[in-house]
Automatic annotation (TrEMBL), chain A:
PANTHER family: ABC TRANSPORTER PERMEASE YTRF, MEMBRANE COMPONENT OF TRANSPORTER-RELATED. It is found in: Cell membrane. GO terms for cellular component: plasma membrane. Coiled coil: none annotated. Belongs to the ABC-4 integral membrane protein family. It is a multi-pass membrane protein. Residues 261-380, 675-793 form the ABC3 transporter permease C-terminal domain. InterPro entries: ABC3_permease_C, Macrolide_Exporter_MacB. Keywords: Cell membrane, Membrane, Transmembrane, Transmembrane helix. The keyword Membrane applies. It comes from Niastella vici. GO terms for molecular function: transmembrane transporter activity. This is ABC3 transporter permease C-terminal domain-containing protein. The chain crosses the membrane at residues 20-43, 256-284, 304-325, 356-375, 429-449, 673-697, 725-745, 765-787.
UniProtKB/TrEMBL annotation, chain B:
Keywords: ATP-binding, Nucleotide-binding, Transport. This is ABC transporter ATP-binding protein. It comes from Niastella vici. GO terms for molecular function: ATP binding; ATP hydrolysis activity; transmembrane transporter activity. It comes from the Bacteria.
Length: 802, 228
């Protein structure tokens, strides 16, 4: 080995603690980026493969009547149709403990030959016999049951019946049941009838030929089929065209992953700043050696190559640790996300591009970061290098702002010295402050966003002044039932509403929705409520809330507005409800939390238009106490009453259940943000430690002089700690301002995904306090070791320090 | 000084001014100096007289503000930093007061390093040459040790061996005995004298009058000008 390279190896091993810090900084970056990209790569591939593996129907056409086998055969013969199947979805209820929870029943024509929206058989029966049911694997948790158990379920028009769970399937097209707080069951038509439900197959699922990736193309094709069906005497209720080829959570997942990737790259960039700073420290120590090497014949390029090689070795070490580590965390990460998306990971291979990106970024970014101090160090003239005493000889001149600042009345000598010292190397100060501020900003942002998330989640309660929503199977006369519920002790308010799935009327007069087969994702609901209502306190963003009892006014929420962005206040809109066109005038736009697309109208106006005066199909109830335990108790009493009154309930949704369902969607995102924030904090503190070490190292001789003229070790320690605290304090201020900006953008992104509206800009005071404590503790530890080292050197050694 | 046409080092009208916050400081004022091959020359003067600056200009470590530096037929003041490094490696051996050995390399490796940088000897020969030079300065038995394990005198001997690594015609030493006791200092001076006998030109900055007997000639500086 060439002698010069031996120097590289010896320098690396000689100052191993400092170099380990460098390895650690780069490793954190490589690890972060590898974990996120690796996890993302697997999830992206598996999400596509899983979802496309189910052969999702291009469109579902809901008919008003039942679909016969001969009709299916006829549809299959139509041009542009690749496949057609009949299907039914029924929202039933299941008894879990002493509560009735929602259960989505998928009625399948032929389990063995199913060709669209396929399900993967996992265990037990492949086709459930009459009176039995298959369960989606994620549903057992919400069912509080396991395969082989019996479950009491109740179809909307039937009596409660015990049904045996004889098999387990995976339905990759559905979000996990625990996330939706809904059970998923798969039955035959005969079982549906056995449950007392007279309904037959009413959904026609089609696969089109041609451009299967265009929603417009599919909609056109589906409309042609719908026209054909209508002409042949089969009235159409709705056409559902979910976004083609996209998993119900695809866009959320892309947005979440974008945030993660941005954070991961930020960690790498912070690591790079730390590398630049640590490399600058290294160069400070090496300046005189560079002078010596140049004296004995080394050229600048040789010096650059020498330290470049040193950096390369550090990068390679970091890669050797970071890549395997990231593969482990990427695996844990994709497993977590797969659970969140109900995916089966069939191919566990992390894409080959991920380690390549890690190698590229883990070498290029640190080398670029180190290039400045290395090139600067290599170009120092020999005389300057040999005369090097570390700290710049430029001192603040008398009368400068710095002197004035450090002479604040009553400030101690230690404070004066600390404040002047930290400004001696201003470029380094900026780098350290920048590093800490970036770490702090992201830390505070993560906590701000987390708090904003919880706060906005709480708005689900604040906007909904009711505790329970009961959806009835069919419309009933309002007075009797509502008054009976009001009589239940603890019921504060009960109101009768109407609800219906709706869509903006298009030219063809069919309802065309973006609803997925779970009937939840992509749906648009119209709610008709008594004006004024005491059970809803929505936020009006533009225009006004409903005030006129009989007026045909409508208020659209943000998700509904997004479906028809051109609509303005005062515009007339036509909404299709149960095949009838209803006409409204837009008077306001609201901001709802925890609800899909929604339109609010007056109950009187609604029933007038649909000729259902005096009837309701939804009851909203507020209890005297909003606690979950109280709500559970009261919900049971309400359900018992409805059962006694023989009123068929299609779903009862306690507000706490809704909140849990929404919280479940974003839990992983918020937790991952927090863990990334911790990583940022670590990198920030490492940066401060590095900067303080460098600062002390440069001033070894100066510290010797201070000791020689009487400074005690305690004073030296306080001086060094004071410098660390001051740097930390400056960074906190900048971090705070930066976090406001970041929280705004991050909140907009996450809020947009979850609520279609930005999260409220929230300042988390615990975040500020925790970060201040981290900085104080971090500054103490960051200065403890350099201070101890400075005090360990004898005064004589310090004075003679080269 | 020596006015022969065989001058190895020729300095003409050398001035050096340092810019300072309080104004500029002229360290050297119109210096003319010629040094012949095979001489042991002392440069003396009080602290701040400009002796180290003069030495730095002769070794190419620093450049003059004005004047010409001609060494072995090369206009040193015209060379770029990288040209200077290569030139210095082969033509000038520098010995410092504080030895300036690289702390993480052994004594042997310190001596081999200039040959590596200048690629001056075949790789296989470097080790033997370095050992021969360490033998010359009488510390061959310390070859595998780190500098910190050696005494001041031994470190200075190692520094001299390193300065000789590329067999330069000129050795420049800035107070090489300043950090050594008188006995060790005298031994180092003996070493320099021996090198001069072997044909090297040695220029030493010193203010130790005890070693006057070793010097063939002495240049005295006062306030940046030659007074003797």
């Amino acid at each position: 080995m060439k002698t010069r390279y031996r120097k590289v190896v010896r320098d690396l091993t000689h100052d191993y603690s400092k170099n380990l810090l460098l390895v650690l900084a780069i490793t954190i970056g490589i690890w972060g980026i590898g974990s996120i990209l690796g996890g993302y790569g697997v999830i992206k591939r598996e999400m596509r493969d899983n979802y496309m593996g189910t052969v999702p129907a291009s469109a579902t056409i809901e008919l008003e009547d039942s679909i016969s086998v001969s009709l299916i055969d006829s549809v299959k013969q139509l041009p542009g149709i690749k496949e057609a199947e009949r299907h039914a979805t029924v929202l039933a209820r299941m008894k879990v403990g002493d509560r009735w929870n929602p259960l989505l029943l998928f009625v399948i024509d032929d389990f063995a030959t199913k060709r669209t929206n396929k399900i993967n058989h996992i265990s037990g029966a492949v086709t459930p016999a009459e009176g039995t049911m298959l369960a989606e694997r994620t549903a057992y948790m919400v069912m509080n049951a396991k395969e082989g158990d019996e479950l009491i379920i109740k179809a909307p028009h039937g009596e409660p019946k015990k049904i045996k769970l004889t098999g387990t399937v995976q339905d990759a097209g559905l979000a996990p049941a625990w996330q939706e707080q809904t059970g998923y069951g798969y039955i035959t038509l005969s079982t549906l009838h056995w449950l007392g439900e007279p309904q037959s197959f009413d959904q026609l699922r089609i696969l089109v030929t041609g451009n299967q990736h265009s929603a417009q193309y599919i909609t056109n094709k589906a409309t042609v089929i719908a026209n054909w069906l209508k002409t042949n005497g089969h009235p159409i209720h709705e056409i559902q065209v979910p976004p083609p080829g996209k998993h119900p959570h695809q866009s959320q997942m892309n947005a979440v992953m974008t945030i993660f990737i941005i954070f991961a790259f930020m960690i790498l960039v912070l690591g790079a700043i730390l590398v630049a700073e640590s490399m600058a420290t290294l160069m400070v120590k090496q300046v005189r050696q560079i002078g010596i090497m140049k004296t004995i014949g080394a050229g600048s390029f040789q010096i650059i190559r020498l330290y470049g090689l040193m950096m390369l070795i550090i990068c390679v070490l970091a890669l050797l640790i970071g890549i395997p580590l990231s593969q482990l965390t990427a695996t844990a990460f994709y497993k977590q996300i797969a659970g969140l998306l109900n995916l089966e990971i069939n191919n566990k291979d992390i894409p080959f591009s991920v380690p390549l990106i890690q190698i590229g970024s883990g070498i290029i970014i640190p080398l670029l970061a180190a290039a400045i101090p290395v090139i600067r160090g290599s170009r120092i003239p020999v005389r300057v290098a040999l005369d090097n005493y570390g700290v710049s000889k430029n001192r603040p001149v008398a009368g400068s702002w710095l002197l004035k600042l450090s002479r604040i009345a009553g400030s101690s000598e230690i404070f004066m010295l600390s404040i002047r010292n930290i400004f001696r190397q201003r470029a380094r100060l900026m780098l350290t402050v920048g590093l800490l501020a970036a770490g702090g900003a992201m830390f505070m942002t993560a906590l701000n966003v987390s708090e904003a998330w919880n706060k906005d989640l709480q708005k689900i309660y604040e906007q909904r002044l009711f505790d329970m929503e009961v959806r009835l199977q069919s419309a009933v006369h309002a007075d009797t039932v509502v008054n009976a519920i009001k009589e239940i002790p603890g019921v504060r308010i009960a109101e009768g509403w109407q609800y219906a799935s709706t869509s903006f009327v298009k030219e063809n007069n069919y309802e065309v929705t973006r609803t997925y087969p779970d009937k939840g994702h992509g749906s648009f609901t119209l709610q008709a409520l008594p004006v004024p209502t005491r059970l809803l306190s929505t936020t009006i963003e533009e225009g006004q809330w409903l005030t006129a009892t009989g007026a045909n006014d409508v208020v659209l929420n943000q998700s509904a507005r997004a479906l028809s962005p051109a609509v303005k206040i005062g515009d007339p809109v036509a909404l299709l409800v149960n095949g009838h066109t209803t006409l409204w005038r837009v008077i306001g736009f609201s901001k709802d939390y925890g609800m899909g697309a929604g339109a609010y109208v007056s109950l009187n106006a609604f029933t007038d238009q649909l000729h259902t005066t005096g009837k309701i199909n939804m009851i909203k109830i507020a209890y005297a106490n909003r606690s979950k335990a109280y709500a559970i108790q009261k919900n049971k009493e309400v359900e018992s009453l409805l059962e006694r009154e023989n009123i068929a309930v299609s779903a009862s949704i306690p507000v706490w259940l809704l909140k849990n369902a929404i919280a479940g969607h974003m839990k992983v995102l918020v937790n991952t943000l927090l863990s990334m924030a911790v990583m940022m904090g670590i990198v920030g503190i490492l940066g401060l430690m590095s900067a303080m070490s460098m600062s002390i190292l440069e001033r070894t001789r100066e510290i010797g002089v201070m000791r020689a003229i009487g400074a005690t070790p305690n004073k030296i320690r306080r001086l060094i700690a004071g410098e660390g605290f001051l740097v930390g304090l400056i960074s906190i201020f900048i971090a705070f301002l930066l976090s406001l900006l970041l929280s705004f953008y991050m909140g907009r992104m996450i809020g947009g995904m979850a609520f279609r509206t930005p999260l409220s800009l929230t300042l988390s005071f615990p975040a500020i306090i925790i970060w201040v404590l981290i900085i104080i503790t971090g500054a103490y530890f960051a200065t403890f070791f350099p201070a101890r080292r400075a005090n360990k050197i004898t005064t004589r050694e310090a004075l003679a320090y080269e | 000084m020596n006015q022969q046409s065989t001058s190895l080092i020729q300095l003409s009208h050398i001035s050096k001014t340092f810019p300072l916050a309080a104004g500029s400081f002229q360290a050297l004022k119109d210096i003319d100096l010629e040094i012949s091959k095979g001489q042991l020359v002392a440069i003396t003067g009080k602290s701040g007289s400009g002796k180290s600056t003069l030495l730095n200009i002769m070794s190419g470590i620093d450049k003059p503000t004005a004047g010409n530096v001609l060494i072995n037929g090369i206009r040193v003041d015209k060379l770029t930093e990288s040209e200077l490094a290569a030139w210095r490696g082969k033509n000038i051996g520098v010995v410092f007061q504080f030895f300036q050995l690289l702390p993480t390399l052994t004594i042997l490796e310190n001596v081999m390093l200039p040959m590596d940088f200048c690629n001056s000897y075949p790789r296989k020969e470097r080790r033997d040459r370095a050992l021969a030079l360490l033998s010359l300065v009488d510390i061959k038995d310390q070859a595998s040790k780190l500098p910190s394990a050696l005494s001041g005198g031994q470190q200075q001997r190692a520094a001299i061996a390193r300065a000789l690594a590329n067999d330069p015609p000129v050795l420049i030493a800035d107070e090489p005995t300043g950090n050594l006791d008188s006995h060790t200092g005298a031994a180092i001076m003996e070493l320099f004298a021996g090198l001069v006998k072997a044909g090297k030109t040695v220029i030493i900055v010193t203010h130790e009058k005890d070693f006057a007997g070793y010097f063939g000639s002495t240049v005295s500086l006062l306030d940046g000008a030659i007074v003797h």
